[in-house]
Amino acid sequence: MGLRGYLLRRTINTIVLILFVIILNFAIFQLLPGTQGVIANLLQNPRITDKSIIGKYENQFGLCSKFDPATGNCTLATPWERFGTYFINMLTFNFGVSYQSGHPIFQDMIQTGRLYNTLLLLGVSTVFSLLIGIFLGVFVAAKRGTVFDTGWVTTSLVTFSLPTFWMGLLFILIFAQSLHWFPTGGVTPFTQITAPPLLVYIGVRLQYLFLPALVLTLYFYGGHLLLTRATMLEALSEDYITTARAKGLSERKVLFKHALKNASLPIVTNAALAFGGLLGGAIITETVFNWDGLGHWIFNAINYKDFPVMQAMFYIIALTVIAANFVADILLGVLDPRIKYE
Amino acid sequence: MGLILLSLFIVAAVAAPILTPYHPTQNVAASLVPPFWVASFFGASRYSQNTQFNDLRAFTNTTGTGLNLSSSLQGPDAITLNVSSVSGGTILVAKTLNYPYSAAPNQFQGSVSIIPSGVDATLSPKVSVFIEHQGLAQYGPLWNASLVLPGQQYHAELSSFDSAFAQSLGFPLGTNINQVVFSSKGTYSLLLIINLPQGPFQAGFQVTNFSMRLYGNTFGVLGTDGSGSDIFTQLLYGAQLSLLVGLVATAIGVSLGLIIGLMAGFLGKFVDEVLMRFTDMMLVIPSLPLLIVLATVLGTSLLNIIIILGFLGWMGFARLVRSQVLSIRERPFIEAARASGAGTGYILSRHIFPNIVGLTYVNLALSVPAAIVGEAALSFLGLGDQTAVTWGKMLELANESHGGLAWWWVIPPGIGIALLSLSFILVGYSLDELFNPKLRKRR
């Protein structure tokens, strides 16, 4: 099977996965007895004479297959019909209305800057955890067996296994509350009447960004470090490294140009895969630091039982992870000529 | 090493009711006070601990003319008095306290109840409550009343939060009355003063609930939380629940993984394909959002959370078992068993299962931390059992508490989670070495 066949297979796999996520999401939220009964109960309730109220719920839940707004006549949809509507809604990103704000969810997600905030936090921590993880991984592999090596491996194992929320609380306690170096949470200060000069603005934003990004970075660099170390160790034992050294190349060139280049494949795919975990970690970190992003939104949705938001967020996060997996698969297929596309 | 740590945790969890006299949500001290040993770091003069007034007794302070008092103790906080007098007089019911700290307490809470008999509107004694710093000053009245109705219970709560008390002493609202009253070391008395009416008088008084506790500004091994409960107690009971959640959830997850892995590996073909596709899908779906969604929808009782964690923790192990089974079932001894007429069930239970038992134990140990951290994360997000005191719950409350984070509230549960996880990982590794002879060379 060639590259084309491999890509085709991966694509089909991805589509099946998306389908699975939609079905799972539907099963979890829509088949709840509570949601199902809402309109049925409203229809049967003789005290409701104003049928327009049913229209309101119909808009929110979409439980009628045929609905006449004037008379309020509603034919209850079968689960299959509802799944059809739901499926189309999910594919068109039409998530309905948030119970909490009353606005369409998609609008809430984009216009309040939540998506941007989360992407900023995730972007920064992904870049830093990758850079730190890979560089340290290379050096640690080069100095294998020394105290430097075991020290960093242990440290990364520890930061890797500490719960993120606890790390966050600890940092707030130390750096924000005791030392006052950073704010305890939030994205921007509450009191900002006039627009400050750009440099000050960036400085303030960075101050707010620092702690949450640090927590996420610390949580994720460990995985990259350990993986880089493992693949580097493998690469360093290859013959071409001996050749490179015999040629008299500098150790830096050997490490980064010859070994890392060949060891980079699993690192690239792992970076894409780690994105899913990063999103999960972001939910907690954003909650700890009051970082007004998607994760913090989920936390609020939990407290308000805002099911449409939770449903939409679960779908979007799952979609992102699936997309990251897909990209990782494709990268692997394109980059590695040795892969047999089985 | 891991075993020692783990058994420490188990002992702590099992013996929690013995190791600490309190209940995890019981209010035992002032809220948000640090542990007692901060005194040895930041200067003992700034800290006080819980104390209380003791040594109940009754006496008269007028000598001579016709005042007779007989009293009998009914317990540490109760005393019965019988009085007869000719021309009035004063009776004192007192408790004393040798206050050993130079720092004032955080708050004081007390109460007094008195049931008179043989009184009426014309012959009504007056009672009042004072705190006396012996040889220095008398503060009060914290309470005063006329005892008019016989058989009626007169009751008062004596609290430092009582703003009327501060005002009656001539201080503006918001004065820290604790610092005024308990200003230094010394002997203090809690006095219930009964002023008898003039004229011939005979009566009985039943004094009960006469007590006062001083809540210090430090408490216990690890301080208190926002509602005045002992954090050390919560930590111990939290260990109990964390172990329970971790072990049961993992047991569910590992058994599911075992069953699915065995089925996929041994039955092969179509079953294998379907099961492994499903496993892959479950592996791709981000676990924390799925956990959140399920916990919200299904409810957040402890049992539910255990089940959810269990049902989301089998995928990795199922793949592991499957690959192991795939390799084992090609070995000659399986072929031999089959040739000698053994059935599928027999081969599975007698030949394949024993070969993956070690793997199962190892995985059991290594998966527990994930379940523990998962439960803590859910609790932290407010999706934990609202009645259960778990480590995650403690951290959630600490995070939500007003007036900033308290280090003695934040640090212990996190260390608990980390150490418990670590001990399971260590145990898992040593089990791995025990069951997997290949590993001995590598290490």
Largest sheet report of chain A: 2 strands, antiparallel
Based on secondary structure, the structural category of chain A is mainly alpha
User: Low-confidence segments of chain B, ≥5 residues, pLDDT <50?
Assistant: none
What is the helix fraction of residues of chain B, given as a range?
40-55%
Helix-strand sequence of chain A: HHHEEHHHHHHHHHH
CATH topology of the largest domain in chain B: MetI-like fold
Mean pLDDT of chain A: 79
Counting DSSP H or I runs of 4 or more residues, the number of helices of chain B is: 15
Share in helix of chain A:
over 70%
Shape of chain B: elongated
Total separate domains of chain B: 2
Through-space gap between termini of chain A: 7 Å
On the 0 to 100 scale, the average pLDDT of chain B is: 82
The CA-CA distance between the termini of chain B, in Å, is 17 Å
* Fraction of residues in β-strands of chain A: under 5%
In terms of per-residue confidence, which ranges of chain A show pLDDT below 50 for 5 or more consecutive residues? none
**Gross morphology of chain A:** globular
For the largest beta sheet of chain A, what order do the strands appear in spatially?
1-2
Beta content of chain B comes to 15-25%
Please provide a brief summary of the model.
Chain A is mainly alpha-helical. Chain A contains 13 helices and 2 strands; from the N terminus they run H-H-H-E-E-H-H-H-H-H-H-H-H-H-H. In chain B, the strands form 2 sheets. In chain B, strands 1, 3, 4, 6, 9 and 11 form a 6-stranded antiparallel sheet that branches. A 5-stranded antiparallel sheet of chain B has the order 2-5-10-7-8.
Structural notes for this entry:
The complex is a heterodimer of chains A (342) and B (443). With 342 residues, chain A is an all-alpha fold. Helices cover 74% and strands 3% of the residues of chain A. A two-stranded antiparallel sheet of chain A has the order 1-2. The termini of chain A are close together. With 443 residues, chain B is of the alpha+beta class. Chain B has 2 domains: 42-215, Jelly Rolls; 231-439, MetI-like fold (Orthogonal Bundle). In chain B, α6 runs antiparallel to α12. In chain B, β7 and β8 form a beta hairpin. Classes of the chains: A mainly alpha (342), B alpha+beta (443).
